[in-house]
Amino acid sequence: MSFPNKIILIGLMGAGKTTVGKMLARHLGMRFIDSDHEIERRTGVKIPVIFELEGEEGFRARETAVLAQLCQMDNVVLATGGGAVLREENRKNMKRSGAIVYLRAQISDLWHRTRHDKNRPLLQTADPHAKLRELFAQRDPIYRELADVIMDTGDQNIHYLVRRLEQKL
Ligand code: S3P
To answer: What pTM was estimated for this model as a whole?
Structure first.
């Protein structure tokens, strides 16, 4: 089987999907697209504003519509929002369109990278650390189930990741 022409990164907020995705795309000569950035580009506002005006459901509807389109593109590395896997439609679209890589980080690393970030509306709660643990417990099984390759972020060496992908496909 040939190397996939689309690589889809999944994982929690702060796992490094955007950073790794950009490196991977550059390395493979592919285009990089981040679904959250695409939503922001189309709406002209930041994600927290969408949550404020339309609620999480409104955001999820936009995310689903954008992902359906992005999953049709070729020669891309696609970074998805952490909650994109929650909808079955998104899971199906991702599964049929490319190789799915789960970037799996420790809670302590996720917390370290997100705790001062005001751009993650789901973490704007009285106890964001507890929320992160809850999201991890809820989503880790979904990410694992969906992924073709699981990458612990401690192993985030781009050459290693590419080799793993090659071996896997
Ligand atoms: C979300 C993750 C965010 C963004 C939105 C909701 C989530 O993306 O889509 O705030 O449900 O985990 P990142 O994973 O890129 O931070």
So the answer is: 0.94
